[in-house]
Amino acid sequence: MLQFVYELSVENKIFYSVLLFSWTVYLWEAYLAYRQRKVYRSTTHVPMELGRIMDTETFEKSRLYQLDKSTFSFWSGLYSETEGTLILLLGGIPFLWKVSGGLIERAGLGPEHEISQSLMFLLLATLFSAFTGLPWSIYSTFVIEEKHGFNQQTLGFFLKDAVKKFVVTQCILLPVTSLLLYIIKIGGDYFFIYAWLFTLAVSLVLVTVYADYIAPLFDKFTPLPEGELKEDIEAMAKSISFPLTKVYVVEGSKRSSHSNAYFYGFFKNKRIVLFDTLLEDYSPLNKSGEPEPEPSEENDAAEAKPRPKNKKQGCNNREVLAVLGHELGHWKLGHTVKNIVISQMNSFLCFFLFAVLIGRKELFAAFGFHDSQPTLIGLMIIFQFIFSPYNELLSFCLTVLSRRFEFQADAFARGMGRASELYSALIKLNKDNLGFPVADWVFSMWHYSHPPLLERLQALGGPKED
Predict the structure, then answer these.
(1) Of these residues, 410, 421, 432, 455, which one is catalytic?
(2) Where would you tag: which of 93, 236, 276, 415 has the fewest CB atoms within 10 A of its CB?
């Protein structure tokens, strides 16, 4: 075996090392998922320490939901890994590059138009990914999420949404990629600096415009009506000098009954977005016996599923304020800025290493490119394959850091005198989203970017302690 490895060419060593590492990561993930599924199967009764915060019915629902999700994740992951391996073994990447060249040649463009060929390759690759991933997405939405009461979409709405997402993605991805490739080609010895600055600018622009111009293409955003909740949110933001300008409610209930909240914006222009499913007083899922809205161009009621009746969901106003206190804690403690700095430091490092490696012809030859070294293919090979061990290590470190940030944000909300409300809000959100509160310690350590529910409640100190 060692003799065989020694006799392999450099290109083959690179290729088989990439495949070996990819399957090693998959088997590690599968092992972790197996450990967690054992927890789902064996923990059939509410543990004693959870008896005060979770009833038997909710516990069983969450156990079955997470078990179904874990089983689905195993099979979809196996398919994805097998598909990726076959693409590499059968030369799918150079084949698609050749097809892309043939298509642009029909348009009168030759091999010298590498950027045009790269964009065609990217379009075909994302089309392939969208079509192969569609059955899995449909099964997840209309079997698993439907079975456990979360899906609120019809098939027509889902497919229209998928097409819209694909089109919007291409409208952003193709121009940005073409400019990045152009910068790399004309940037000279220091192209990696210009490429990094360009991606930094693009990321800042996208964060700025996403909620105002992109997200409204998919969901309806309305200003939070005047009233006690809005006044309390504005007062809380002012108390910590958070430059809040607007508060929106997003109609997340037309897709799913999962709940969420976030803030966005730079400098003195911060906005808060609340999902209607988070708000007990606004969630359509809590309104029984009310007529459905008339369908119109601005309303997708005609494509939305009938809303379930008598399902209480969301948090009361004081609990919503506690959740926002946690989110604002991330801002006040600098977590958002720290994450941006870490992300950009990593991006700069990756572009620098890319500049070092892009001239190595054996990297291209390992993946079937013996006569050419297209820049887009180099980006794919180096960022996706060669950097994969580094990416796995970085992902784990960021998961550990995220858990630390979550505890700090909880402590910040507690310092604002909202411990008891956050305590009850976490329990409600865990119940609404059917989160399972028991986890295998290795699975939790590797995957959980948020601490387990019980650990967060213990850190808050109890339901009555402020």
Answers:
(1) 410
(2) 415
Dihedral angle over CA of 315, 318, 324, 329, nearest 10: -130
**Would the annotation count 45 as a binding residue?**
no
Among the listed residues 146, 212, 281, 327, the single catalytic one is: 327
Q: Within 13 A of 207's CA, how many CA atoms are on the CB side?
A: 17
> Is 326 within any annotated ligand binding site?
yes
Query: Among candidates 445, 334, 349, which has minimal Cα distance to 397?
Result: 445
Give the Cα separation of 50 and 340 in Å (integer). 36
pTM recorded for the entire structure:
0.83
Q: Which of 150, 158, 90 is nearest to 300 (CA)?
A: 158
Whether 55 and 437 have beta carbons less than 8 Å apart is answered as no
Tell me the C-alpha distance between 107 and 101, whole Å.
10
Q: What is the DSSP annotation of 397-420?
A: HHHHHHHHHHHHHHHHHHHTT-HH
pLDDT tens-place values along the chain, 466 residues long: 545 555 678 899 999 999 999 999 999 999 999 999 999 999 888 887 777 778 888 889 999 999 999 999 999 999 999 999 999 999 999 999 999 999 999 888 877 889 999 999 999 999 999 999 999 999 999 999 999 988 888 899 899 999 999 999 999 999 999 999 999 999 999 999 999 999 999 998 888 787 778 888 888 888 888 888 889 999 999 999 888 888 888 887 777 777 778 787 776 778 888 888 888 766 555 554 444 444 444 445 445 555 444 455 678 889 999 999 999 999 999 998 999 999 999 999 999 999 999 989 999 999 999 988 999 999 999 999 999 999 999 999 999 999 999 999 999 999 999 998 999 889 888 888 888 888 899 999 999 999 888 888 888 875 544 4
Q: Which residues contact 237 (CB under 8 A, 6 or more apart)?
A: 243, 244, 270, 272, 328
Residue 9 corresponds to which tokens in the numbers above? 């060419």
User: Which of 390, 396, 393 lies closest to 446, judged by CA?
Assistant: 396
Say whether 258 counts as a known binding-site residue.
no
Examine the residue annotation and report whether 465 is marked as an active-site residue of this protein.
no
